[in-house]
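Support reply, case 0932

Customer input (verbatim):
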Amino acid sequence: MSTLVTGGTGFIGSNVVKTLAEKGHSIVSFDLVAPDELLQRYLDPWKDQIEYFQGNILEKRDLEKLSESGIDKIVHAAVFTGVLPRIENSQASSIVDINVLGTTNVLEFARKVSPDRFLYVSSGAVYGTERPKDEILSEASEVKPNNLYSITKYTSELLTKRYGELYGFDNASVRLSGPYGPMEKITGHRENQSLIKTWIEQALRSEMIEIDNRSLMYEATYITDIAEGIVAVLDSSSLSYPVYNNASGRQSTLGGIIQILEALFPGIEIRDVPYSKALDSIPKGRENPIDINRLKEDVGFTPKISLAQGLEAYLEWYRHYNS
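Our regenerated output:
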């Protein structure tokens, strides 16, 4: 039997594929984009466990081609991460189509194959951006989606839960927060990049890093912890909840990130400025810590990678794979 990962060549999906393979799964990776050379190198040790299908989640016929693949679990990670205002404004209908109709098509496929578990990869964006600073965001917190991306993510959570109820397959949604690390790249459906990726690339090019608010709190979660958290929920013998937060559980200030980068890049130039374009990638108005007690207590997974370890590992990967 195989685990289907939609969006399997993307940032989140490719790392989920890697973690699944490390744990012995056979994987069907389904994506609009074929695996490129970088991805093939990244997953080469597990290539015999991975079958690639190129297709579109908006085309039911493409999904139907997977019916003979013996799929018993599904991770739905395909998404249009249209969070930048200009992308939302210019491609609103595409965001809704891919993130809602696409999810519905994958759920329809799940209805037909009756998987042991369907896991939807959601986002902490569903909590919105306008929150009291002292509020800790748990899965019981009120959701306040305030753009098309977060609205469609929450809608897909509800669709996942209802389809599972209607058609009798186990399901859960996992809300990610602050992912960074290997395989993050600009694609046609993910133009926004993490602040950490932006800063590491600037440092590698010996460019000055500009920062306008060293005290701003930032949730950064290394991608291996993100992927392992997803797989832990997928493979758990039983789940008590329909939704799980997946984050590092440890906030840092932007100044703290800068201090680690200064140690990794001796002599790097940092300039404090009134406005830094790099910070546009951070949701304004939300610096809240993410509660991950459900993930720890119900699933038994605790993130392992500290911020310093993650930045060092990411830099090592970047130098190795992009040389």
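We compared this against your earlier run and they match. Two observations from our side: The longest helix spans residues 92-113. The domain at 2-179+222-249+292-303 is CATH 3.40.50.720 (Rossmann fold). Please reopen the case if you see a mismatch on your end.
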